[in-house]
Amino acid sequence: MLPTFNLRAILWATLAMALLLNYFAWQVEFPPPAAPAGTTANAPAANGAANGTGPDLGSVAPVINASPAPAAAPGAAPASAGSAPGTSTAGSLANPAVGNALDASTASAAAPNVHVVTDVLDVLVSLEGGELTRVDLPAYPLVKGEPTPVRLLNRDGPKSLFVLQSGLAGAAGVPMPTNTARFSAPASELRLAAGQDELRLPLTWTDDKGVTVTKTYTFRRGQYRIGLDYRVHNGAAAPWTYTPYTQLLRYNEPVANSYFHPESYAYKGPAYDDGQKYQKLKMGKEPPTLDRQIDGGWLAAMQHHFVAAIVPPTGAPWNYRLTTRGDEYLLAAIGPTQQVAPGASASLHQRLFVGPKLRVQLDQTNPRLYLVADYGWLSAVARPLFWLLDHVHRVVGNWGWTIMIATLLLKLLFYPLSEASMRSMARMKALQPRIKALQEMYKDQRDKLGKATMELYQKEKVNPVAGCLPMLLQFPVFLAFYWVLLESVEMRQAPFIGWIGDLSARDPLFILPALMAGANYINFKLNPQMGDPTQQKMFMIMQIAMPVMFAFMPSGLVLYWTTNTVLSILQQWNINRRLAAQAKARN
After folding, report:
1. FRET partner for 122 with CA separation of 20 to 30 A, picked from 212, 291, 511, 540?
2. CA–CA separation, 165 vs 170, rounded Å?
């Protein structure tokens, strides 16, 4: 026996689902507004992307500036003078002091840069500490059709400060190759030549006791992954102890969320992964904290479509730390303390990533770095969906046609379930004259009307709720499509046809939303009209209201919904035609 039901309840449930859909579409990532920065935290950097100047006196200090001698971890044995080269003493730097500033002296202001140009990166490396001071992405224009590229790392101004620093720290007062030390380089510019696959930039530091440290950046053709290697040779008479660290220093300017700019809801801020769980550290009124020993993870400074990430070596735990003040944060990975015996050498290798969130390259950098393409709580649906889209795109080469073909494939996948539901809807439509007769008969007796209607459904073996199932199945896929379109840099500025030059942005002429409204209306008229006249009008208004709500959503999302609705119309029309033929044959 079919359970009793209430048409008004079904109506409100459908309305609630539509509201939930819209809510998640643009508010699933709605962090609270960041706390206003204090007067000393509002000027974290001096101008000068080209000269490598450091942040001014208000900035969050790099870890090394506030670090006393490395403190041994609990239970760790002190370093022995006879330790073998590269032996870890499991130490870590002390907590950074947020109030301390990087010394913006005239010497640091005059630090020269090395200009490195590959086919995909345009980089400035400062000889002060080997800091990655500026990174441009020539293949990604800031505005489609204009020559200005996306600039990720930079020191262009206080509110855009975003740099990657690294170094080897030691005991207080001992000269070390930190991110404030002066290095030397063999050239002031390196360019990837035709037929060349790799550029190596060695930076050298020496002290007056015979210790030489070579810090080498490796850039590869077509790659946003950057190798960071240290080679330490201890020519001194005593053991030399160091603690490696790498850190991202950023002024995380808050992004004002706007319904008219869905990309503003993409996550921007620090994040890390411990090899088991990925965690966003949302900036806001309550500053996030991080202080953990992790082996095999990564840290990242994320924003819409692009990321800068640090991937420490595996085999020993690194201390992951986050320090914040106002809208500034310092995300650091601090390695175990190492000791190099006199006359011995040691090496260390890390991986960096600075660029777009390209799935293949992220996987090559770290097996879990793909998580920076953050699809939210529907990742379990969105990631297989992106896999399908990616494989279809490899064949057709256009993301718009890819979306339409993938929608067709999904429709075929759910065809048996959809057909069963649509058959129920078609039988419901055939019962409409009899239902209207019952409504006239019991127009003032709602209880009797409900009982008589249910008896009719039971007699004809019709389930009125079954017709809602296809729509319910669409919601997770719809939301997954939203996040795939929003977060997948592969679809950034991707054209379709004619007036649609960017599937990740709204339709500039609102043609697709208009087509969506028309398809919704036809689909509505093709299906049975449930409820009383007032309820039916509300259902009809929804068919127009939804395209209006989605008019400012990515055009690729509207393309998916419109394609899916057109396919549903064709499927429902075919089922209605077949049922009508069967009924005629019986008569």
Report:
1. 212
2. 16
